[in-house]
């Protein structure tokens, strides 16, 4: 039972945890892999130790999970919104109560700092609480027609939804997808990233404890093959995917074959515009928030930082000073602000981007190197020092591609018109940001940037009441906010005749 894992968390330290529990969950319980073959090791990023083994689910297991979800859907969808809300509020309460333990487990599997993981878990229970609040408000419309006839609309669930997650926010992504899905009366089968399989199953147990019907939120483990089984399954009505653009395109293609609805939360290369009239200290803090959360592995990061030429020297001096001061190391220590990247291949990829940037003419102002903490147990961890790149140009690889690591590219600009054009010159469109004291300029820039979110005078805050999602290749559909109800429900129109049929035949 996972409770035993969570119960060991208060005393757990980096490098001491091993997980042997089954990580699949359907029919209201953890389910052992049918065959213990094709095992993949799951690593603790801060040490490089093997944390557990992952056994990918095959077609029979995926089918079992989906059938269990469908049976639960038939019960759950018949409840009143307020009845669903009560169960969801209880789930939110349990998460809040266990927040520190769940956060610790998340850190051990993901490598991010405990301070950040605690915020992630808070955002997760807030999301469930928020959609519990909306569950009782779902309603249709009454439309009066001639002759006493009328029509009404019903907001109905879709059925079994599949959720496919990335590894950077494992618990939070599972909550962002399941909360609106369940509020609308759907069931969900969730597949976490094979690199972070551990905490989604804790969420499944909490939903069960809160009182959802067995099977309502299931977890199947695996990678591309298991994900594609979900996308192809005829009993799946919708796929909500978080991950890279190339995988998102495949998910859309597979889902199209079954005419399934799709939400795609994909990658980005977001611009952050800092004008010379900005409050500089806030702009610098914003640039750090835009680049270094979760070791830079954040989809909406503002990694192209455009700074108006007149304030470039002061900006660089301050941003470099603060970047060098980021406490880097054991992610379970309260003072640490940056932990380890998710994997050795990811670390190597990010370091290659820094090398390539240097070759293309960028100047490394700080960081960009592998980092070996002095604590011996962290020697095998996937750490690197956060990096600020100067002398960047729009045509450089580091400015064009999503690096997904702690690398900030800084570029000068002169005019508003010029910087908007350059900021929009990308196939991505997830987020953007602007720092200025000029209120008219702030809103003009927000209007003209081609992105799903524009932060004014801040960056990377994500209240659950606010919709989140992309433009262009960064995807479509939204998570969070009221609008997401529309992505997890469908509208039925009922037309009622009160008199005789006026037939043409
Ligand atoms: N927009 C957002 O909300 C958001 C949030 C987090 C991460 N991301 C993006 O995710 C990427 C990093 O995450 P990642 O490396 O896990 O992405 P990824 O695309 O490699 O994998 C994402 C998920 O898709 C699964 N998958 C892989 N191939 C599949 C296939 N053929 N069919 C079905 N499922 C498949 C993976 O197992 C994983 O669960 C970055 O590009 C990042 O920007 C976006
Ligand atoms: C919570 N953040 C920081 C807005 C990240 C959302 C998910 C993106 O990777």
Automatic annotation (TrEMBL):
Homotetramer. It catalyses: 4-(trimethylamino)butanal + NAD(+) + H2O = 4-(trimethylamino)butanoate + NADH + 2 H(+); an aldehyde + NAD(+) + H2O = a carboxylate + NADH + 2 H(+). Keywords: Cytoplasm, NAD, Oxidoreductase. NCBIfam families: PRK13252.1 (NF009725). The keyword Cytoplasm applies. It comes from Xyrichtys novacula. Pathway: Amine and polyamine biosynthesis; carnitine biosynthesis. It comes from the Eukaryota. Converts gamma-trimethylaminobutyraldehyde into gamma-butyrobetaine with high efficiency (in vitro). Can catalyze the irreversible oxidation of a broad range of aldehydes to the corresponding acids in an NAD-dependent reaction, but with low efficiency. InterPro entries: Ald_DH/histidinol_DH, Ald_DH_C, Ald_DH_CS_CYS, Ald_DH_CS_GLU, Ald_DH_N, Aldehyde_DH_dom. It is found in: Cytoplasm, Cytosol. Belongs to the aldehyde dehydrogenase family. The active site is at residue 265. This is -trimethylaminobutyraldehyde dehydrogenase A. Residues 38-494 form the Aldehyde dehydrogenase domain. One of its GO terms (molecular function) is 4-trimethylammoniobutyraldehyde dehydrogenase activity. One of its GO terms (cellular component) is cytosol. Pfam families: Aldedh.
């Amino acid at each position: 039972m996972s409770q035993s894992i969570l119960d060991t968390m208060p005393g757990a330290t980096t490098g001491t945890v091993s997980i042997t529990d089954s990580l699949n969950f359907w029919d209201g319980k953890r389910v052992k892999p049918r065959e213990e073959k094709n095992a993949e090791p799951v690593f603790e990023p801060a040490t490089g130790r093997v944390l557990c083994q992952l056994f990918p689910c095959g077609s029979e297991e995926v089918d079992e999970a989906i059938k269990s979800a469908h049976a639960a859907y038939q019960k759950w969808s018949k409840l009143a919104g307020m009845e669903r809300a009560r169960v969801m509020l209880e789930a939110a309460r349990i998460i809040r109560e266990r927040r520190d333990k769940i956060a610790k487990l998340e850190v051990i599997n993901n490598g991010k700092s405990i301070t950040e993981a605690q915020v992630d878990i808070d955002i997760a229970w807030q999301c469930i609480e928020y959609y519990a609040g909306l569950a009782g408000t779902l309603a249709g419309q009454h439309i009066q027609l001639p002759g006493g006839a009328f029509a009404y609309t019903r907001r109905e669930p879709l059925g079994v939804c599949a959720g496919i997650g990335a590894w950077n926010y494992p618990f939070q992504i599972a909550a962002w997808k399941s909360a609106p899905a369940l509020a609308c009366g759907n069931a969900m089968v969730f597949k976490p990233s094979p690199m972070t399989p551990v905490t989604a199953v804790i969420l499944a147990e909490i939903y069960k404890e809160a009182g959802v019907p067995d099977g309502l939120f299931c977890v199947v483990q695996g990678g591309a093959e298991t994900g594609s089984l979900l996308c192809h399954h005829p009993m799946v009505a919708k796929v909500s995917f978080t991950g890279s653009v190339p995988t998102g395109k495949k998910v859309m293609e597979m889902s199209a074959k079954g005419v399934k609805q799709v939400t795609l939360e994909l990658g980005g290369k977001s611009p952050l515009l800092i004008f010379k009239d900005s409050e500089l200290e806030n702009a610098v803090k914003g640039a750090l928030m835009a680049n270094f959360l979760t070791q830079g592995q954040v989809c909406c990061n503002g990694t192209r930082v455009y700074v108006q030429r007149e304030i470039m020297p002061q900006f660089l001096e301050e941003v470099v000073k603060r970047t060098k001061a980021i406490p880097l190391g054991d992610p379970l220590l309260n003072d640490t602000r940056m932990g380890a990247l998710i994997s050795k291949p990811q670390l190597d990829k990010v370091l290659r981007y820094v090398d390539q940037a240097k070759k293309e003419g960028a100047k490394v102002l700080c960081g960009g190197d592998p980092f070996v903490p002095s604590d011996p147990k962290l020697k095998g961890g996937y750490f690197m020092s956060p990096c600020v790149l100067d002398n960047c140009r729009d045509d450089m690889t580091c400015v064009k591609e999503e690096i997904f690591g702690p690398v900030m590219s800084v570029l000068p600009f002169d005019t508003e018109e010029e910087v908007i054009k350059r900021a929009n010159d990308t196939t991505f469109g997830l987020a953007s940001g602007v720092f200025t004291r000029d209120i008219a300029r702030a809103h003009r820039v927000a209007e003209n940037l081609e992105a799903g979110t524009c932060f004014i005078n801040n960056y990377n805050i994500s209240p659950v009441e606010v919709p989140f999602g992309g433009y262009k290749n960064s995807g479509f559909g939204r998570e969070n906010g009221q609008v997401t109800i529309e992505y997890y429900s469908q509208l039925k129109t009922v037309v009622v005749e009160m008199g005789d049929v006026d037939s043409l035949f």
